[in-house]
Design brief:
The structure holds two protein chains of two kinds. Residues 1-5, 30-34 and 810-816 of chain A have low confidence and may be disordered. Chain A contains 32 helices and 31 strands. By secondary structure, chain A is of the alpha/beta class. In chain A, strand 22 (621-623) and strand 23 (628-632) form a beta hairpin. In chain A, 62% of the residues are buried. Among the domains of chain A are: 128-198 and 400-514 and 547-595, Rossmann fold (3-Layer(aba) Sandwich), CATH 3.40.50; 217-392, Dimethylsulfoxide Reductase, domain 2 (3-Layer(aba) Sandwich); 612-650, no CATH class; 693-803 and 838-870, Barwin-like endoglucanases (Beta Barrel). Chain A starts with 7 loop residues before the first strand and ends with a strand. Helix content of chain A is 30%, strand content 17%. The longest helix of chain B has 10 residues, at 25-34. Chain B is built from six helices and ten strands. Chain B has helices at 25-34, 72-76, 102-106, 127-131, 137-141, 158-166; strands spanning 11-16, 44-50, 57-63, 82-84, 90-92, 112-115, 118-122, 147-151, 170-171, 183-186. By secondary structure, chain B is of the alpha+beta class. Chain B has one domain: 2-Layer Sandwich (Alpha-Beta Plaits). Classes of the chains: A alpha/beta, B alpha+beta. Chains A and B meet through helix 2, strand 5, helix 3, helix 8 and helix 9 of A and helix 1, strand 3, strand 7, helix 4 and helix 5 of B.
C-alpha cells in the first residue's frame, strides 16, 4: 500500500481528521486538481453561504440581530480596543471599540481583517502528535487527554531532577506574560524566552536610563507643533501605530505641526512627511547630537529646565556636546550641516510643543541605545519633557494590571533557578529594568550548551521565519532532538514553528480567548483592556492559557495549588474583583461590557516629574541642602525619593538622582563589567560608530528590513485580504546604484551577507548566507541601502500565505467538508505564479546575522552589510 | 456610530486625502463587511510615488463609487438593474441583473464590477449599516479621519460640517466626465485621477509596487515587470 492511500495530505484535511488518523503537512502536498474541479459545484462553501437564495447578490449583515462583544486586537503589537459583531454565533465583523482611549472606532487594515482568522479553512483544529521524523510533517490526531499526558510527566521529571529551568516557553507577542510567569513560577523556571531584543530593547533601555520610569514615551502629538521622527514608520507599523498616527495627523492638519522624518527608506511615513531626511544607516545618534549642539550653540536651549531637572546641567552639557558640530554630523550622517542646523533650530523654536522620538530605525543598531538616548536628550535640551505638546510619559503601564487586578493567592514564590540563556551576563542591561532578554541568542545558546531544555513550548511565534538566521541556525536547533528533546507548539495555523514541533496544540484566536492588555495611553492615563471570547473557538481549539492551567494541574499538587480555578475565564473573573470597588459595580461585568477601564481619578500625566509629593510620601524623609529628599528603606539604605523645586518637594524622575539622566553610572559600570571600552560605554550618550559599517568596502551595501502596513512579521500572511494587497517583497535598490550594477526591476540578484564586527561579535566578515531575490528599482531609498520587508516568504500557513490557489487536499470524500471551504482560496488567488502572479515573496531573515548590540543586546537588524550581484 | 440625520437623508461623502496614510483599512473593512471576493473591489487605495531621491513624495487616493447624480452605470443597463434612491445612493437590484457588463464599461471610476461569477457589484455606502444607524465600514474605521460622511440635508452631519468649513477647497474626480458625483475630495493630486480605470473595474495588478510611480490605469501584460521566479525551500522538509 502506498503511504498516500492511508495518510491524509495538506492542512485542509485537518477538518476531517479522526483520532488516530495521520496527516502529512508539507508545502508540496499538492494534488490532482482537475478531477476535483470537474465535479465541484459552481458555488460552494462560505461564498455560497453569503449569497442570497437565488445565488444572485450577497446577503448583507443584519445588524439588528448582532450582539456586540468587546475585545482587543492582536493582529499586531499596537493593542487596539475592538468590538466584534456576532450574528447567529458567527463573528461577522470587528470595529474599533469607541470607548478605547487610544484608537476609538478606528482600526487599521490588519485589525479589520480579524474575522478572516477565525474563518480560515486551514486552521489547526485538533491536537496532533508527530509520527514521522521531526520536520517531516507527518502527524497523528490525538486527544487532549493524550496531549496533556505527553507534557505533564516531562515537566515533572525536570522538576524532580532539580532542573526546573529546563522547562522553557518561547513567545512572540503573546500578551499573556502574567499567566506564563505564573505557570513557569509554579514550576520554578525563569525560562520565558521572549522577543523584546528583536523588537525594541534599545529604545526601551534608553527611556529607562533617561526617565527611569517607563520604557515607552507618550508623545503629546495632537498638541505638538514640531515632530522630529527618528526612524519610526508609525503610518504603517510602529508599536502604537494607529494611536500615534491618528494624533500626529491631528497635530499636523488641525494644529499646524511640522513633521520631519529620518529614515533610510521612503516609507509611507517618510513619503508623507513635510521633510524626509535620509541619513546613513546607524547615524541617527550623530544627527541628534549635532542638532543638540546647534541648539545650544545658538543659545536656544532651556537652561533653566536643564539646571533644575537634568543630572548634567546646562554648562556641563554645553561643554560635552561642543565637539558634535553639525559639520561633524554631516560627515557621519550625510545630512548637510545646514539642514541639521535649520531643523534643530525649528525644533527648538517650537518648544515646548516639540517632540523628538525614536523607533526601530534609530534603535535597531549596534549603537542604537546611545542613539535613542541622544534623541530623547533633544527633548530635555529644549525643555519639552512632560509638557503639553511635548515628550510625555506616564508610569509604566505593565504595572497597572497586577495592581488593579491583583493575582489570586497563593502566588508562586520568586523563582531562584537561573538560566544563562534567559539572563546572559554578556549583556548586563538586557534584564536590568525589565526582563527584555536577548532572544536572538537562544538557539546559539542551546547549541553551545550554555543551557538545556527538556520541555520547550512555543507560542505566538515563528522563529524559523522571523529570527535572524531563522532558516539556518534556528531550524538546525529546532530539528535536533538532542538539543530540544520535546517541543510543544500552540498555534492557530500550521506554521513554520509548528512544523518543527513534536506536539501541536490548536490555539484559540485573540477573538476567542481571554486576557488583559495595556500599553501607554495617548491620553496620559492608566488603562487596562479586556480580551474576551467573541465566539467559541472551533472544533477542539483551546486557548493556550487554558492548556497551561490543565497541564499545571496534572504536573502535581505542588504546581496545581497555584491554579485553584477552573479555567482562564474564572481566573479573569477573580482578578476583576479588584476592580469592583473602583467602578461601583461588578468588576468582571464592567470589563466585559466596556472592554476597557481607564483611571480617571489621577490627573493626566503631564509634568509627572514635577508632581508634588504628598504628606504621606514625605513621611520619614530628610532633605539636604541641595534639595534632595531622602528616605531610608527597610534595609537601612538611603535613596533619593524626590527633589525640592520652587520650594516644594516634588517627585522628580524615577532615576537614582531623581533627575533626567543624561549620564548614568549603571551604564558605565555595566560597560566596565563586560569590557566594552568604547567612549559610548562611559555613561554619557556618546556617539560611536557601528564597526561593521566602518569596515565596509566600497562595493558593500547596507541591508535593512521593514514592515508593510498590512502585515506583521509572522502572522498576517494567511489573511487573504491582506495578502491580496501585499504578497510580494522584492529588494528595494536605489536607481543610481542599480544603474551602476546593471540591475533592472524584476532582475534576479544574488545577495551575500556578512557577519558583524564589534564587541561580543565572532567571525566578523564571514559569509552568513546567500539568497536569490528579485530587485525593485526605486528613487525611494538611500543609494547605499538595500531593503527587503521582514514579512512574507512563508512556506506554510496555507494557500493565502503561500500564493497557491487550488483545493485544500486530495482526500477522497472531502467534498463533505466543502461547508467551510473558501472559494476565494480555491479559485481567486490572483497572485499565484500559476496565473503569472508574483508569488508569496521571500524570507530575508534567513540570511541576516545574529548581532546583539553591546550592553542591552538588541538585535542590530539594520547593521547588516552585504554584496549584491545580478544573476 | 449614529450621527445626525434628517427624515429624508441625502448621503454624501467628502474625503480629506491630505490626511490619508495609505493604510488600506478602508479597503479591508469594506471587503470583510461585504464579503467581497478576491480580485473584486468596491474600494481601492491608489499609491503614487514621485520625485527624485531624496525629494521623494508619496500620495494616496482612496476610491469608491462616486454615487453619481448623472449615473452612467444606471443609464447603460438594459435590464434596469441599477437604481438611484432618493437618498442619492446608487444600488444594484440583484435579481434583475443578468451580468451583461454594460455598467462596468460605462463607469468612469472603476467602481462597478460585473462578470459571470456574480451580479454587478458596487459600493452602496454600506446601506445595511446606514439602516442600523451605523456609518459605512470605510468611514468608521479610517484612522486618519479622511472620510467625512453624512446626510447633506442635516447641517450638523460630519459631511455638512466639513463642507461648511472646507467646501470651497473640494473637487470631484474626473470632472470632465460630468457625472456629478456625490463624493468630493480635498487635497488630492489631480494627476492621480488617471490611475483609476475607465470602463473596467479596478485592476488587481495596480496593487503591485511597480505601479506606484506610474499614472496609467491599464497594465497590458507586455508592459508589466516580469518578476524573476525564485523558489524557496523548506529546510529539512520531506520532498
Amino acid at each position: 500500500m502506498k503511504r498516500r492511500d492511508f495518510i491524509k495530505v495538506g492542512a485542509g484535511a485537518i477538518s476531517t481528521l479522526a483520532v488516530g488518523e495521520m496527516i502529512l503537512l508539507s508545502p508540496d502536498a499538492d494534488a490532482g486538481i482537475m478531477d476535483w474541479f470537474r465535479t465541484t459545484p459552481k458555488l460552494y462553501g462560505t461564498r455560497k453561504s453569503y449569497r442570497r437564495a437565488s445565488g444572485k447578490g450577497r446577503i448583507s449583515n443584519d445588524y439588528s440581530k448582532a450582539t456586540i462583544v468587546k475585545g482587543v486586537c492582536l493582529n499586531c503589537s499596537t493593542v487596539c480596543g475592538i468590538q466584534g459583531y456576532v450574528i447567529d454565533g458567527k463573528l461577522v465583523k470587528v470595529g474599533g471599540n469607541p470607548e478605547d482611549p487610544n484608537n476609538g472606532k478606528s482600526l487599521c487594515a490588519k485589525g479589520q481583517s480579524g474575522p478572516t482568522i477565525n474563518d480560515y479553512p486551514e486552521r489547526l483544529l485538533y491536537p496532533m502528535k508527530r509520527v514521522g521524523k521531526r520536520g517531516e510533517g507527518l502527524w497523528k490526531r490525538i486527544t487532549w487527554d493524550e496531549a496533556y499526558n505527553e507534557i505533564a510527566p516531562r515537566i515533572r521529571k525536570a522538576m524532580d531532577e532539580g532542573k526546573p529551568e529546563e522547562v522553557a516557553i518561547q513567545i512572540g507577542r503573546s500578551r499573556i506574560a502574567e499567566e506564563m510567569n505564573r505557570f513557569l513560577g509554579a514550576i520554578g523556571s525563569p525560562s520565558l524566552f521572549n522577543h523584546r531584543a528583536l523588537c525594541s530593547s534599545n529604545k526601551r533601555a534608553a527611556n529607562y536610563v533617561c526617565l527611569g520610569e517607563t520604557d515607552w514615551e507618550t508623545g503629546d502629538f495632537a498638541n505638538a507643533k514640531y515632530i522630529l521622527n527618528f526612524g519610526s514608520n508609525f503610518y504603517e507599523a510602529h508599536q502604537g501605530a494607529i494611536h500615534t498616527a491618528k494624533r500626529i495627523i491631528r497635530g499636523r492638519y488641525d494644529n499646524g505641526a511640522k513633521l520631519v522624518t529620518l529614515d533610510v527608506r521612503c516609507s509611507n511615513t517618510a513619503g508623507r512627511s513635510d521633510e524626509w531626511l535620509c541619513p546613513n544607516p546607524g547615524s541617527d545618534g550623530a544627527v541628534a547630537l549635532a542638532m543638540g549642539n546647534a541648539i545650544i550653540a545658538a543659545n536656544k536651549h532651556d537652561k533653566q529646565w536643564l539646571d533644575t531637572w537634568s543630572n548634567v546641567g546646562s554648562d556641563e552639557l554645553a561643554s560635552w556636546i561642543r565637539a558634535y558640530t553639525p559639520e561633524w554630523g554631516e560627515k557621519v550622517s550625510g545630512i548637510p550641516a545646514e539642514t541639521i542646523r535649520r531643523v534643530a533650530l525649528e525644533f527648538a523654536a517650537a518648544a515646548p510643543r516639540s517632540i523628538a522620538f525614536t523607533n526601530r530605525g534609530s534603535g535597531a543598531h549596534y549603537n542604537g541605545f546611545n542613539a535613542d538616548r541622544s534623541i530623547i536628550l533633544l527633548n530635555a535640551i529644549v525643555g519639552s519633557i512632560g509638557k503639553v505638546g511635548g515628550y510625555c510619559y506616564g508610569e509604566e503601564p505593565t504595572r497597572v494590571p497586577p495592581r488593579v487586578f491583583p493575582q489570586p493567592k497563593p502566588e508562586p514564590p520568586r523563582v531562584t533557578a537561573t538560566s544563562l540563556i534567559e539572563n546572559p551576563p554578556e549583556w548586563p542591561l538586557a534584564n536590568k529594568w525589565q526582563r527584555m532578554k536577548v532572544g536572538q541568542i537562544v538557539y546559539q545558546g542551546l547549541k553551545e550548551g550554555r543551557g538545556k531544555v527538556q520541555v520547550y513550548f512555543s507560542y505566538t511565534v515563528a522563529t524559523p521565519q522571523t529570527w535572524p538566521e531563522g532558516r539556518s541556525l534556528t531550524v538546525e536547533v529546532l530539528s535536533d532532538e538532542r538539543l530540544i528533546p520535546f517541543h510543544v507548539c500552540s498555534d492557530i495555523v500550521y506554521s513554520e514553528q509548528a512544523h518543527y514541533a513534536d506536539l501541536i496544540l490548536p490555539d484559540a484566536s485573540y477573538m476567542e480567548r481571554w486576557g488583559f492588555d495595556t500599553r501607554n495611553n495617548m491620553e496620559l492615563r492608566d488603562y487596562v483592556t479586556l480580551r474576551q471570547p467573541m465566539v467559541q473557538p472551533p472544533a477542539e481549539c483551546v486557548s493556550f492559557v487554558d492548556s497551561m492551567i490543565e497541564i499545571a494541574k496534572r504536573v502535581g499538587p505542588d504546581t496545581a495549588k497555584y491554579f485553584p480555578f477552573k479555567n482562564h475565564e474564572e481566573w479573569m473573573k477573580i482578578r476583576c474583583e479588584g476592580l469592583t470597588k473602583r467602578v461601583g459595580e461588578d468588576g468582571f461585568e464592567y470589563m466585559k461590557k466596556h472592554g476597557v477601564w481607564q483611571d480617571m481619578t489621577k490627573p493626566q500625566y503631564y509634568d509627572l516629574y514635577a508632581w508634588e509629593l504628598t504628606e504621606a510620601q514625605m513621611k520619614d524623609t530628610r532633605t539636604d541642602e541641595r534639595g534632595n529628599v531622602y528616605r531610608k528603606a527597610a534595609d537601612g539604605k538611603e535613596s533619593i525619593v524626590g527633589l525640592m523645586v520652587d520650594g516644594k518637594p516634588r517627585r522628580g524622575f524615577a532615576t537614582p538622582s531623581r533627575k533626567f539622566a543624561v549620564y548614568h553610572k549603571d551604564v558605565e559600570d555595566a560597560a566596565k563589567q563586560v569590557g566594552f571600552t568604547e567612549d559610548g560605554g562611559k555613561g554619557m550618550p556618546t556617539y560611536f560608530a557601528v564597526p561593521s559599517i566602518e569596515k565596509m568596502t566600497n562595493e558593500m551595501l547596507h541591508l535593512v528590513t521593514f514592515k508593510w502596513n498590512v502585515h506583521t512579521q509572522g502572522r498576517t500572511q494567511s489573511q487573504k485580504y491582506l495578502s491580496e494587497i501585499v504578497h510580494h517583497n522584492p529588494m528595494w535598490i536605489n536607481t543610481d546604484t542599480a544603474k551602476k550594477l546593471g540591475i533592472k526591476s524584476g532582475d534576479k540578484v544574488e545577495l551575500t551577507t556578512y557577519r558583524p564586527h564589534g564587541h561580543q561579535m565572532k567571525n566578523g566578515g564571514e559569509v552568513v548566507g546567500k539568497a536569490e531575490i528579485t530587485a525593485f528599482v526605486t528613487e525611494g531609498i538611500h543609494p547605499r541601502v538595500l531593503a527587503i520587508s521582514n514579512t512574507l516568504g512563508n512556506l506554510f500557513h496555507g494557500r493565502a500565505a503561500t500564493a497557491k490557489k487550488g483545493k485544500r487536499q486530495q482526500v477522497p470524500g472531502w467534498i463533505e467538508s466543502l461547508d467551510n471551504e473558501d472559494q476565494d482560496l480555491v479559485e481567486d488567488i490572483w497572485w499565484d505564479p500559476k496565473n503569472g502572479g508574483t508569488g508569496a515573496g521571500y524570507n530575508v531573515n534567513a540570511i541576516l546575522p545574529i548581532q546583539p548590540a553591546p550592553l542591552v543586546g538588541m538585535q542590530g537588524w539594520y547593521d547588516t552589510v552585504c554584496t549584491v550581484k545580478k544573476v | 456610530m449614529s450621527q445626525p440625520r434628517t427624515a429624508n437623508p441625502r448621503w454624501k461623502l467628502a474625503l480629506d486625502v491630505e490626511r490619508c496614510i495609505g493604510c488600506h483599512a478602508c479597503s479591508v473593512a469594506c471587503k470583510v463587511e461585504n464579503h467581497v471576493p478576491l480580485a473584486r473591489f468596491r474600494t481601492k487605495v491608489y499609491y503614487w510615488e514621485h520625485g527624485k531621491f531624496p525629494a521623494v513624495k508619496r500620495n494616496f487616493l482612496p476610491t469608491l463609487c462616486m454615487q453619481c447624480e448623472d449615473t452612467p452605470c444606471l443609464k447603460a443597463c438594459d435590464n434596469k438593474a441599477i437604481e438611484r434612491g432618493a437618498d442619492g445612493i446608487v444600488r444594484v437590484i440583484p435579481d434583475k441583473c443578468d451580468h451583461l457588463g454594460a455598467c462596468e464599461t460605462a463607469c468612469p471610476y472603476a467602481a462597478i464590477g460585473c462578470d459571470e461569477n456574480d451580479v454587478a457589484d458596487k459600493c452602496d455606502f454600506c446601506s445595511h449599516r446606514l439602516d442600523a444607524n451605523m456609518e459605512p465600514a470605510c468611514v468608521e474605521t479610517c484612522p486618519a479621519e479622511v472620510f467625512h460622511f453624512g446626510d447633506a440635508n442635516h447641517p450638523q452631519s460630519p459631511y455638512s460640517l466639513f463642507m461648511a468649513k472646507h467646501g470651497d477647497k473640494t473637487a470631484v474626480l474626473k470632472p470632465e466626465e460630468k457625472t456629478f458625483p456625490s463624493v468630493v475630495y480635498k487635497g488630492h493630486e489631480k494627476a492621480m485621477e488617471s490611475k483609476i480605470p475607465k470602463g473596467k473595474v479596478h485592476d488587481p495588478y495596480s496593487y503591485e509596487i511597480e505601479t506606484w510611480t506610474q499614472l496609467e490605469s491599464q497594465f497590458p501584460k507586455k508592459n508589466r515587470v516580469i518578476w524573476a521566479k525564485v523558489e524557496q525551500t523548506v529546510p529539512g522538509a520531506k520532498k
